[in-house]
Amino acid sequence: MEIRALRAFVEVVRQGGFSRAAKAVFVTQSTVSKAVKQLEDELGVRLLERVGHQSRLTEAGEVVFRRAASILAQGDDLRTELEEVRGLKGGTLRLGFPLIGSNTLFARWFAAYRSRYPGVEIKLLEHGSQRLEELVLAGELDLAASLLPVSGEFDWQEVRREPIDVLLAADHPLARREKLTFKALADLPFILYGEGFALNPMIMAACRESGFTPRVATRSSQVDFIIELVAAGLGIALLPRLIAEQRPHPLTKRLPIEHPAIYWHMALVWRRGGYLSHAAQAWLALAGAPEVAGG
Known about the structure:
The protein is an alpha/beta fold and 295 residues long. 42% of the residues lie in helices and 25% in strands.
């Protein structure tokens, strides 16, 4: 069983087709097709069903995909360890940051790291927490920032824990209160985040605990746009206090929310038992550094 064939198969699944997979691994589509066919012949099972221009995993294919992704990730770990044993200077740090809060939490951290380790190349990817976790497990990221709790597949290091506050139009009757409960929000339209944001299931769970399913007015991945929508009276939003405080708006009111209280609990996560490069360990070690501790 060749690593080349496993990588071709895994990329077909991740990219959603043979042509995109070929671009990802820098070979022709024909080469990818032959590699996958070779793997199917060797294993004696059908891995993919061709449906039009798309490919769908068979039951056997799902098993092989999980195993193959793990094998490839372990192979990447092996190469990284060997490079460092040979005294590789510099190296690469592959980081994943969420779309919300990264500027607040990690800008100073990033600057401090670049100052201390100018020879390390930092490859940065921004995405929703769920997608970042998938990329960490696939071995494509060394570290990612994600919201706790995370599954047992990860080790993690806490970054920040902030209460979630509710933001509503300043002229709304509820804005006159000092604090709110989720139950008080039951009849109001909610502005939620885009797909893949870990805050969404937290908000939905708090609503269910309070006995209702929220009516969703719209969704957005842009915090500033969400705040403007609240100011325009489209609905309410739930924001981490730290982020809401940095974006005051004269037409909105921010109130603490409780019963149940929920928190934006950010951590850096990595694969449990996975190899952490010296570059990644140095990033984690910056947590207590004076220039970033208040970040």
